[in-house]
UniProtKB/TrEMBL annotation:
Residues 1-147 form the N-acetyltransferase domain. It comes from Anaerosalibacter massiliensis. One of its GO terms (molecular function) is acyltransferase activity, transferring groups other than amino-acyl groups. This is GNAT family N-acetyltransferase. Pfam families: Acetyltransf_7. InterPro entries: Acyl_CoA_acyltransferase, GNAT_dom.
């Protein structure tokens, strides 16, 4: 398994990024200023994007594993890699997600705790309703991990 920081042509990972954030112009808001990490095990398995929001404050904006490789430890391996990568400079890492039983348990599993909510984030910022597991996402739920 190998994890690489990607410096150029970040859009090459759009198909994976869209699994976690289905509207391309929302991805465009953070992709260029974000640090992109790609996990390869033979071929590409997972991707994540981390932005610096303030001194010591980082945000995991996107993390995704190709569907057929999910549940095999790649997401967690990538998460552990970025925790090491930012150790020393990161005091708090945030992650925002829909109020969904598909993602919140994964973040809890990786040491994140519920922080706060941004009301109506999905309905205010996306140009179409977003559904996960048949449930419409309305608020953004932020989780945090303190270092
Ligand atoms: C969320 C996601 C990135 C997790 O990646 P992954 O490679 O499948 O994760 P892992 O296999 O490393 O799982 C890590 C641990 O979390 C657990 N986990 C993963 N998804 C989970 C879920 N939905 N509910 C509960 N636990 C979960 C796994 O069981 C595993 O536990 P273990 O370490 O005890 O074995 C992946 O499911 C994905 O790409 N989903 C679609 C995109 C997405 O929704 N991204 C997040 C948007 S905010």
């Amino acid at each position: 398994m190998k994890i690489k920081r990607i410096l150029g042509n970040k859009k090459q990972f759009l198909d994976l990024l869209l699994l976690a954030d289905e509207q391309e112009d929302m991805i465009d808001k953070y992709l260029e200023r974000g640090d992109v990490f790609a996990l390869y095990d033979g071929d590409l398995k997972s991707i994540c994007v981390v932005t610096k929001e303030d001194e010591g404050i980082y945000e995991l904006k996107n993390i995704a594993t190709y569907k057929k490789y999910q549940g095999q430890g790649y997401g967690k391996a990538l998460m552990n890699y970025i925790f090491d990568y930012y150790s020393g400079k990161c005091k708090t890492m945030f992650v925002g997600t829909g109020d969904s039983p598909l993602t919140i348990p994964f973040y809890n599993h990786c040491g994140f705790k519920i922080s706060h909510r941004v009301k109506n984030f999905f309905t205010d910022n996306y140009d179409h309703p977003i559904f996960e597991n048949g449930i419409q996402l309305i608020d953004m739920v932020y989780l945090r991990r303190d270092f």
